[in-house]
Amino acid sequence: MQITFLGTSSGVPTRSRNVSSVALRLPQRAELWLFDCGEGTQHQILKSELKVSQLSRIFITHMHGDHIFGLMGLLASCGLAGNVDRVDIYGPPGLNDYLQACSRYSHTHFSYPVKVHAVKPGVIYEDDEFSVTCNQLHHRIPAFGYRIAEKDRVGRFDVEKAKAMEIPPGRIYGQLKRGETVTLSDGRVIHGNELCGPTEIGRKIAYCTDTIYCDTAVELAQDADVLIHEATFAHQDSEMAFQRLHSTTTMAAQTALTAGARRLIMTHFSPRYAPGNVVELKDLLREARAIFPKTEMAHDFMNYEVPRRREKELILAKN
Amino acid sequence: MQITFLGTSSGVPTRSRNVSSVALRLPQRAELWLFDCGEGTQHQILKSELKVSQLSRIFITHMHGDHIFGLMGLLASCGLAGNVDRVDIYGPPGLNDYLQACSRYSHTHFSYPVKVHAVKPGVIYEDDEFSVTCNQLHHRIPAFGYRIAEKDRVGRFDVEKAKAMEIPPGRIYGQLKRGETVTLSDGRVIHGNELCGPTEIGRKIAYCTDTIYCDTAVELAQDADVLIHEATFAHQDSEMAFQRLHSTTTMAAQTALTAGARRLIMTHFSPRYAPGNVVELKDLLREARAIFPKTEMAHDFMNYEVPRRREKELILAKN
Ligand SMILES: [Zn+2]
Ligand SMILES: [Zn+2]
Question: Where, by residue number, does Zn(2+) 2 bind (chains A, B) (predicted)?
């Protein structure tokens, strides 16, 4: 699970930061998922190492322009490139009507299936490996946060050990691989976990934007390996945050802390904190780290590979 | 009149060329006009030396996404920047409904007046200095070409000469400046043109995209100082041009030649001619120049200052 930030500015693009979009790469299945799609997202993908041909799902948090104005262009370009199989889009009610209206007025006909799903709180997508849950945040218009959870996996099956124990290969290996208990024809009882490595704990990512501090963001981020949370404003600009229902750095950090998240990456910064201004982004980072030390600030094209906990624990054990 | 190309690719953006937009600067009145507004136009303006605060008029040729998907983002950002007085938008019927629908779905409220004018063939805008005419081109959907004509101006009034001739200053100067004939109180008859420099011939720009070769493009480009014309395809790909109702290089050049334009700048190139392909953009340029030698190819951020004919003729006279 590799995260690439494609846009980290709130409201308007700047010379160095585009409006919101975050890519999630799932290399094991050659899929690319997008979270939000501000204007110019397709341009950012072009400049990155992401492959638009792998695009399969897009999750939209809310209908503000800086989160959706890149959708039509991206979808149209995917069609012209002719290398996308199907795209599923998840987002607030109204998203489908918006896309239909844009398609109609611009005479855009997608050459591949585009299916729009209106989300409501709960599980909105699930397969063998992943589930995606959403819940409503607290913004000026309906906005949804997302939690992407990888399922736990039984550890790697030790074939050499099974052979050494003279367990006959075939169907029994499959049962043991799944962690089941098997009675062999010679009467021995074998527990799958004897032959499997430690369980691979699924990774969890939460994406919360746009919102002021709210309990649902904490729930979505519970025990997450990484929480991506908006931090539009510095703490001193809390009043604006309350007026516009955006978060300050301290709200983002408090959310990560309360949720027991392992890492916080802040994004969606107001252009007012550009270098040279009274308050700069490094000040925002300091504010958040005072509450939640494992905080980073996103910048455009920043990559973050979500670490596996199992691997992490093995490394810890070695030290 | 300074032209800046902001996007010169057809259909989809590439790493080096954005989708369609052309800026026209009118420095004498600190105004910026835009022609078409593909996705990412506001990003291109940010990277250029253009001032978005000067934006006053936007002319849209047709409703295909690569010509309009940047409009909403640009208009929304102008509002957030809070430095635009008013924007008048001219385009095909449907443009207003499209913008209204996008505004509604994205909860975008412009903080300044945005007025959308549905164009039809004829003069669509006129003031003391400029007139803008449009006419329908020949594309898959209704598309309009534009002609921007600067009005002729009486040459500079020679105050020193007037004084030397002992013409009393005041109201009479104004009449002479306008080129009128005046009878002085002493009986002398003075013709304004005796005291004015050569008439400044207004400059004319034609913008024709998207279209296959058509007579209306020739009319719009009649005697133009510069014709900006699409050239999506190389001559060898004429069949595609006919199918999709786009122009080849040779059609663009033929339009310039037949219209008696002074210069042709081609734009809206298919990404298939990127460097390294069998046919490259330099081949497209060669094709056009074989028919119309004064042809250039646009690239993103290319500037072209439309020369004044009077100045040009003075230069010619000196040589
Ligand atoms: Zn928002
Ligand atoms: Zn078109």
Answer: 66-67, 210, 268
**Amino acid letter, A186:** D
Ligand nearest to the CA of A210: 1
Mean pLDDT of A204-230: 97
Residues B183 and B241 in one domain: no
Which of B14, B101, B106 lies at the smallest CB-CB distance from A63?
B106
Contact A130, A149 (CB under 8 A): yes
Determine the Cα–Cα distance for residues B164 and B157; give it in Å rounded to an integer: 13
Residues A286, A171 within the same domain: no
**Does A298 lie in the same domain as A166?**
no
A117 is in an annotated binding site: no
Arithmetic mean of pLDDT, B67-78: 96
- Give the mean pLDDT of A176-191: 88
How far out from the chain centre does Cα B131 lie? Answer: 11
Judgement on whether residues B7 and B110 belong to the same structural domain of the protein: yes
What are the start-end ranges of the E strands in B61-143?
Answer: 87-91, 114-118, 122-126, 130-136
CA B233 to CA B237: how far, in whole Å? 6
Whether residues A167 and A233 share a domain: the answer is no
Ligand with an atom nearest the CA of residue A60: 1
Domain range spanning residue A176? 159-194
Same domain, B301 and B170: no
Name the pTM for this structure: 0.90
Give how many domains chain B has, as a whole number.
Answer: 2
In chain A, the residue whose alpha carbon lies closest to the alpha carbon of B76 is: A65
Average pLDDT, chain B: 93
Percent of chain B with pLDDT over 70: 97
Structure confidence at residue B212 as a pLDDT band (50, 70, 90): very high
Same structural domain, A165 and A282: no
H or E element, residue A160: helix A159-164
Sequence letter at residue B20:
S
At B269-306, the pLDDT tens digits run 999 998 888 999 999 999 999 999 999 999 999 999 99
In the structure encoding, which two tokens stand for residue A57, read together?
A: 């799902």
A314 and A170 belong to one structural domain:
no
CATH of the domain at A282: 3.60.15.10
- Residue A95 above 90 pLDDT? yes
Q: Which residues of B touch A301 (CB under 8 A)?
A: none
